[in-house]
């Protein structure tokens, strides 16, 4: 079953002198996949993710999320999202934030409290769980952001550069958690600039640039077509056409 | 509905934790207490002046809290991007506006209620007090006023920047309390197309002057008949609904 189905998608932010952010993008993500979404800065990754979440009011093309329109509330009930910029209400504590979001999903108090304990544990927030987020470092906010994406036990998890700003240990831990979530049967779609990370955990990848899909498929298959001897890094550079080296 | 209520609670929590209104609260307290101990203009008029100045300040402070707080809701949330993870959950943009609006009204009304309570206590200690029916009417009018002000402030920040929105909210308020009556007189004096246009202007502007019962309180006049109060409540509900509807349609078209 297709969880994300995007066909000939055009998005224009309508700010003066800007080109279209997405120019006929195609993308298919199936249930159970762990999908890496790659592309240089400004390629349109975050824009695509906003489309998937129904955050963009006008676009041209076909977008179906779990077979329904992206602004459908029962679809949103099954999605977890970790944004690119982790910023939450500084006047709340992580525990309060998670509780507020649990209420939004209509989770009962008992289940919410149990889930919150689990997530605080999972994302290493034990010591900070009752402090106002005003004082949090970027990495701590990132952990809160990861925890809140899991509050509703989502079927589809959308992560926009999840490990950016994390220290090496936290990064490895988060990677392990992502792999574990995938084993539990969740579909995971995430954008990243860390090629090695993508190589380690993804079944499939898509590479986009200037709002268009350049390549998509199993990583092994993509590399094989190139002769199989190249590294993912040099493959990536050759695809996005960057003559840096 | 659930979403709206959760957002409203969050809005109130924000006001309490951000400590915005404590400043006003302390200022009003100091002012009322100093009014209590002073004896301006000879003994005879003291009660009237306290009623007048005290009410003016409580009205102004409640208004400032409602405007600044309502105006901050959307720009802060959009600029800091906290709106994105929120709207990615089962929350529509309409839920968002209504929740923030409800929270603002509840928060500014609570501040107003405390101010008003202090005011009533002080005026009844110092002088003859105010008729109970008028106390209730002025209170209800205040809540209606704060609802309308909050809705309009939210709408303005969807078209203007935060500081411009706040400034325009203030300008509209002072323009209306000073000129609405004069406009009425001008409307009556004109004929033809001019009269039609002025009439439209007169009926479109938010009539903030309806709500302020300061003079009535100060002079201990009688309360309004019930139909006037009901009329003002209906007017407030209709006007606020239209303003919120426009805000929702505007936000729905916005790229975040
Ligand atoms: N709110 C916005 N208003 C106007 N233009 C925007 C907006 N957001 C993004 N853009 C433009 O859309 C294009 C794609 O941006 P997007 O944020 O999707 O890139 P990205 O692939 O996520 O980049 P990065 O790797 O830097 O996060 C860029 O040209 C950007 O300038
Ligand atoms: Mg991005």
UniProtKB/TrEMBL annotation, chain A:
GO molecular function terms listed in the Swiss-Prot or TrEMBL record: ATP binding; ATP hydrolysis activity
PROSITE patterns, per the entry: ABC_TRANSPORTER_1, ABC_TRANSPORTER_2
Domain of life from the UniProt record: Bacteria
InterPro entries associated with the record: AAA+_ATPase, ABC_transporter-like_ATP-bd, ABC_transporter-like_CS, ABC_Transporter_VariousFunc, P-loop_NTPase
Keywords from the named record: ATP-binding, Nucleotide-binding, Transport
UniProt cross-references to Pfam families, sorted A to Z: ABC_tran (PF00005)
Transmembrane region(s): none
Protein name (Swiss-Prot/TrEMBL): ABC transporter
Naturally occurring in which organism (per UniProt): Candidatus Aquitaenariimonas noxiae
Organism lineage string: Bacteria, Pseudomonadati, Candidatus Omnitrophota, Candidatus Aquitaenariimonas
Automatic annotation (TrEMBL), chain B:
Keyword presence, Transmembrane helix: yes
Keyword Transmembrane attached: yes
Keywords, ordered alphabetically: Membrane, Transmembrane, Transmembrane helix
Transmembrane segments: 21-41, 97-122, 129-152, 158-180, 187-205, 225-246
PANTHER family per record: ABC TRANSPORTER PERMEASE (PTHR43471), SLL1107 PROTEIN (PTHR43471:SF10)
Name of the protein: ABC transporter permease
Organism: Candidatus Aquitaenariimonas noxiae
Lineage, uppermost ranks: Bacteria, Pseudomonadati, Candidatus Omnitrophota, Candidatus Aquitaenariimonas
